[in-house]
Records
---
Amino acid sequence: MLLSLCTCFLWLSTSDLWTVQAQDPDTDVSTRSPQRDLAPNNVDFAFTLYRHLVASAPGENVFISPLSISMALAMLSLGARGYTRAQLLQGLGFNLTKTSEAEIHQGFQHLHHFHKESDATLEMAMGNALFLDRSMEPLESFSADSKHYYGLEVLATDFEDWAGASRQINEYIENKTHGKIVNLLSKLDSSATLVLVNYIFFKGMWAHPFDPESTREENFYVNESTVVTVPMMFQSSPTKYLKDRVLPCQLVQLEYTGNGTVFFILPDEGKMDTVIAALSRDTIQRWSESLTISQVDLHIPKVSISGDYDLRAILRDMGIADRVNGTDFSGITREAQLKASKVVHKAMLQLSESGLEAAAPFGLTPKAAYKRLAVHINRPFIVMIFDHFTWSSLFLGKVMNPT
Ligand SMILES: *[C@@H]1O[C@H](CO)[C@@H](O)[C@H](O)[C@H]1NC(C)=O
Ligand SMILES: *[C@@H]1O[C@H](CO)[C@@H](O)[C@H](O)[C@H]1NC(C)=O
Ligand SMILES: *[C@@H]1O[C@H](CO)[C@@H](O)[C@H](O)[C@H]1NC(C)=O
Ligand SMILES: *[C@@H]1O[C@H](CO)[C@@H](O)[C@H](O)[C@H]1NC(C)=O
Ligand SMILES: CC(=O)N[C@H]1CO[C@H](CO)[C@@H](O)[C@@H]1O
């Protein structure tokens, strides 16, 4: 435990990104911050998973919420038995001799607490639900623990009627995300006896909004042969910018109101893979320290990005579960034929102009002799959203084609 805390402190004391909220008392390194205990592990897992997904779908968009996946899998481990249980937590990057299971679940409990409520500005909704066939009873210890740590709602569903069941699930998610995530399950999905859903919706309000009047249709160069048109937002303001000397890319960091911060990373043409291979905590830290404020003419596509994934398949491919005679989830319910279970993840992000109308002055002033720069996010890019308060990786995306 001590070791893992040291990692946090090191990271904190050397990193710009995580200490930006100077008024936040929790950035005081002498204070233990329970909402950040899991951050190093979770961010490492985020990049491992991201690289795996990118490698398995070359040329396609990838969009995930690493925080919500980590949380869903840790929760699932409560219902796993034997080898599967340890395997899931280790697969998430935890060293169980250093961090106990109880500490892991407590860490996620804090994260869930901080992220579940969509506060007025961050417009965020996150949660977990388990749909279980009516013929099955969840085990008491599983429902109690998963509710306690993760706020899991268990809902009885009639899976004999798959059309009805998928409608029930879709309506539930639609309601919880205020209509933002619809049709989570499609009619084509095959039937199941148990569906675990983790959902997250995030609509950030820019600390410095874009002016809708400035949005224009512009070209986005998908690859050598394909050009699409997208609404391109524009702002010219003091912005954190870096032309990286180590990796073939440039990036900007923008702030949302509240605790969200976003990196737009624009690899040089054809260098997407090189940049993705180098994504790590150290890289983010180096970037955070190297970004400087410049007057930037910034063009960013106004898009809605989403990704949905069957996590069971991903776990299997990553060798996290299913390798040893399938998985043992007999801790969820005694009757479960868990061969027919699903773990669905859907993440969605809307990039738009909106911010606080009466935005406070940005608080960033360019160095006296700055050069005016233009950054056109008009070819494949990487987008990463972090939370300053919990150091969580809320979203990781690779946008190849925004249309
Ligand atoms: C887990 O932590 C222990 C104690 O710090 C260490 O000896 C061990 O090598 C670690 N295991 C892994 C797989 O990193
Ligand atoms: C959403 O859920 C709330 C609370 O459970 C309920 O009152 C409301 O009717 C639901 N709305 C829809 C559209 O299902
Ligand atoms: C370019 O992108 C289009 C649309 O995504 C795709 O159909 C095509 O295969 C791509 N071409 C190359 C050379 O990658
Ligand atoms: C960051 O999040 C914490 C916890 O939710 C909250 O108390 C704090 O006010 C937030 N900071 C800002 C600047 O919104
Ligand atoms: C049912 C099944 O797949 N059983 C296998 C479980 O794993 C052992 C050892 O790897 C195999 O010998 C069994 O056949």
---
Amino acid sequence: MKNENEKEKVIVKNRSMVKNRPMVKNKTVAKDKAKVREKAIVKDKSKAIVKDKNREKVKEKVKDKIKIIPLGGLNEIGKNLTAIEYRNDIVVIDCGLKFPDEDMLGIDVVIPDITYLKKNRDKVKGIFLTHGHEDHIGALPYVLKEINVPVYGTKLTLGIVETKLKEHDLLDVVKLNRVKPRDIIRLSNVSVEFIRTSHSIADSVAIAVHTPLGAILHTGDFKIDYTPIDGCVADLARFSEIGKRGVILMMADSTNVERPGYTMSESTVGEAFQDIFAGAKGRIIVATFASNVHRIQQIVRAAEKYGRKVAVSGRSMENIVEVAIKLGYITTKKKDIFISIDAINKYPNNKIVIATTGSQGEPMSALSRMAASEHRKVNIIPGDMVVISASPIPGNEKLVSRVINQLFKKGAEVIYEKLADIHVSGHACQEELKLMHTLVKPKFFMPVHGEYRHLKQHVELAWKLGLPHNHAMICDIGDVVEITRSSIKKAGSVVSGQVFVDGLGVGDVGNIVLRDRKHLSQDGILTVVVTIEKASGSVVAGPDIISRGFVYVRQSEDLIEEAKELVKEALQKCEEKHITEWATIKSNIKDVLRGFLYERTKRKPMILPIIMEI
Ligand SMILES: [Zn+2]
Ligand SMILES: [Zn+2]
């Protein structure tokens, strides 16, 4: 092991020499000069002062460091947000949300904890967006309400952001800056560059933050598609150039690191669509991700070729299609190819294609409602061809399966991923990741965008490509990663975590409320209401027992009566002992009921005593 480490050190030295030759030279020169001076020190005191000054300069250079503070997106898929701090500049990359886990009952969305950014508000120069997916932009309205900083993004990304900000009444107060790939934004100490990538949404970019120590490259979500729908291939030349100039740290997408080979081109899906459209006799209904503009473009192309009209169903998809058409990301050869969902019955079935949300089986989505006969405009009929152009995100398999079953029962033909090539991923597989690592040749590497297993395997991939073992680091949110010219290390941590959004409340629902919700959802609640006379402490009315989600009271009258008797006895005892403290009375009621109910039902409902005084 030792030998190996030593070897690595040698390799590191060589790598840095190749990359930073001028810098290394300067350092050596400075060192040599210092040596010469050291000999002269006894003879000349004034020269010694100069020497000290030089030493300080060198020291300062050596001390120069960049901090990377991930506040989301590590050990989880979602709520991506990374802060890059150099001197007085903090660059924030992405600002995403996460959808709640099953145990986060009633929570709408989850956003990152940005306490650190609020504390360092003056340094935050802007939020720089890689692309328009919810897990990268979804937290913007909430974060911008806390820290109103400029937002930078490409045309489509900002188009989607605008719709979002409009919903939150923020459009007039936030400064949106539209950028193009290869644009460079200069800040006080660093500059930020955007580099084109491919992904399952148009206009995605990687971000390079140029610092005096080298570039920090964040790939964003990416894949390498040589035949993308919009013709905009990832800017591999620029990645290579930046790599040549010296990348001190790369953070790269780890989503598909477990998959060998390459992600297929989006164009292959278009070919599958053409085959399906050629054979379909009735309506075609295609479900996909609302934001997959390229996929929707391919639906439009197939529809044009086979003379069908396109109707869109599902609010999020309608919004994005509107923005994408307006900004030129979805183009049509035929005018009026899009029709309103209200108008589908004016055309024969074989002239209609419906693009819809619900590819994940989400219960409230348009496709689920169609499958359950709850959609107001579309009823599934025999002869319909439903194409589910997505793969279920882990955890959604059951939901998707239920929708597929319902569709088959209604007589529709259903085509899903297992049956045809109707979906490709938006993330790089192993070979594409290898290409990125090889082009960029980072000195240090930090995998992002993935659960722990993805991060771990991405590090192993980087090692295989020759990265020294101690040059890769798996981090967690809240870690402060400190990078100097020659080292990477964790140096403390900052507040981080998840903030729950429920309705209008941001952060007001915490773990205690969630625990109660869980308790209520599992065993229900039992409320005991008693009225006590203030002066004497004797019961004047009640106890009354109301229950929800515990037992059906009408069928459990005996149980409830017995419970009432027990409460009465408990109250009696309190009265005898002259206990007048409400808290004590309440806990006595709880104790006696908890034991009794568990014994009789093996259930533990939440018990809520309410005492009224007259
Ligand atoms: Zn994405
Ligand atoms: Zn993502």
